[in-house]
């Protein structure tokens, strides 16, 4: 933990602290958090320091009996009806109890996962002048690279850099994506879309609906790919990689590397979601909680900062909110009854 000297230093800084100027100076470098680390920063700048009361204990959860979220094997979901029913039961339980689960044998080749992670690393570790071309806060761009999308509106910045792109329903042209990760983004998105349709089928059955119900509601129509690069942090106890939040989508498919740091809030405790080789992390989003009439849970989660890095992750968000739409979503009518009215 930070010593009393560092705490006193932070308090002194706060008395003469022009946050807006600090944010603008950081933003204007277009080098992100990686730029700070490359410059040899040994202390976390004030704009990244999180009040302790807002983030709670910033350590990996430990204990003799650690809580482990479900890891579900999807092998044979389309070949063996008996196994599929068992998988649906596990997906139902995980979605109702945890809001998170991991999947293995999901059908996306290991080589595709590895290349996606490598593509993220190539982009962020290329020459800064090449990256600067894509640095923007205009979210209507086909490809957006920056550090902290909410840099000027959030109470505190997070220790990470990000790029994102809307991959569906209107995918970017190849030339609109950086060469460093162009091909792998397009292939990974195609594979994740296929997996998403399968997952929505399992979730539909878990709700007692026809397999294609959620797909017909266009839950798999929109896809955003968001890649995070978390550089090593000199004082991880003072900041976070990603603040506590829930996902405002139907479903999130996450590829994380082996460094760890992802945690979910379960029964008022932070629970680690440890990396499992070859697995993808799946979590329920706010929209899925809404349309399932609160049967499936969208839960808050965060990412710790770490002295080890960089940590790399790729989150794929299934949602209709990325493009202009007149669709309104509410609880699925087939799930409602006198005994199960809409949750307000």
Protein architecture, described:
- This protein has about 350 residues and is α+β, with helices and mostly antiparallel strands.
- It contains ten helices and twelve strands.
- The chain has a single domain, classed as Sandwich (Jelly Rolls).
- The protein has an eight-stranded mixed sheet with strand order 1-2-10-7-12-5-4-3. A four-stranded antiparallel sheet has the order 6-11-8-9, with no helix packed on it.
- α5 packs across α8 and α6 packs across α8.
- The mean pLDDT is about 90.
- InterPro entries: DIOX_N, IPNS-like_FE2OG_OXY, IPNS-like_sf, Oxoglu/Fe-dep_dioxygenase_dom.
- Belongs to the iron/ascorbate-dependent oxidoreductase family.
- It comes from Salix suchowensis.
Features:
12 strands, alpha+beta, Jelly Rolls, eight-stranded mixed β-sheet, four-stranded antiparallel β-sheet, 344 residues
In short, what is this structure?
This protein is an alpha+beta fold and 344 residues long. Helix content is 31%, strand content 19%.
CATH topology: Jelly Rolls
- Amount of beta strand: 15-25%
CATH superfamily: B-lactam Antibiotic, Isopenicillin N Synthase, Chain
Query: What does the main sheet amount to?
Result: 8 strands, mixed
User: CATH class, please?
Assistant: Mainly Beta
Q: Kindly state the percentage of residues in helix.
A: 25-40%
- The second-level CATH architecture is Sandwich
């Amino acid at each position: 933990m930070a010593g009393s000297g560092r705490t006193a230093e932070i308090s002194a800084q706060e008395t003469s602290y022009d946050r807006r100027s600090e944010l603008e100076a950081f933003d204007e470098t277009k080098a992100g958090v990686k730029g700070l680390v490359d410059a040899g920063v040994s202390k976390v700048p004030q704009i990244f320091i999180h009040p302790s009361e807002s983030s709670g204990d910033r350590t990996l959860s430990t204990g003799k009996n650690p809580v482990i979220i479900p890891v579900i094997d999807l092998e044979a979901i389309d070949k063996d009806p008996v196994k599929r029913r068992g998988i649906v039961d596990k997906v139902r339980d995980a979605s109702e109890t945890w809001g998170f689960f991991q999947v293995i044998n999901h059908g996306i080749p290991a080589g595709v996962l590895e290349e996606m992670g490598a593509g993220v690393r190539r982009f962020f570790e290329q020459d800064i002048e090449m990256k600067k071309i894509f640095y923007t806060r205009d979210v209507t761009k086909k490809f957006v690279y920056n550090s902290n999308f909410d840099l000027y509106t959030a109470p505190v910045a997070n220790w990470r850099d990000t790029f994102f792109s809307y991959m569906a329903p209107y995918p970017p042209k190849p030339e609109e994506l950086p060469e460093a990760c162009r091909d792998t983004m397009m292939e990974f998105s195609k594979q994740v879309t296929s997996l998403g349709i399968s997952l929505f089928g399992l979730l539909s059955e878990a709700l007692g609906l026809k397999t294609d119900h959620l797909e017909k509601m266009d839950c798999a129509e929109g896809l955003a790919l968001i890649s995070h690069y978390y550089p090593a942090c000199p004082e991880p106890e003072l900041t976070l990689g990603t603040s506590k939040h829930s996902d405002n989508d139907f479903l999130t498919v996450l590829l994380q590397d082996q460094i760890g740091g992802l945690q979910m809030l379960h029964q008022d405790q932070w629970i680690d979601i440890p990396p499992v080789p070859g697995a993808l992390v799946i979590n329920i989003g706010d929209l899925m909680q809404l349309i399932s009439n609160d049967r499936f849970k969208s839960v808050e989660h965060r990412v710790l900062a770490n002295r080890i890095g960089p940590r790399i992750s790729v989150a794929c968000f299934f949602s209709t909110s990325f493009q202009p739409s007149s669709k309104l979503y509410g609880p699925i009518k087939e799930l409602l009854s006198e005994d199960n009215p809409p949750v307000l």
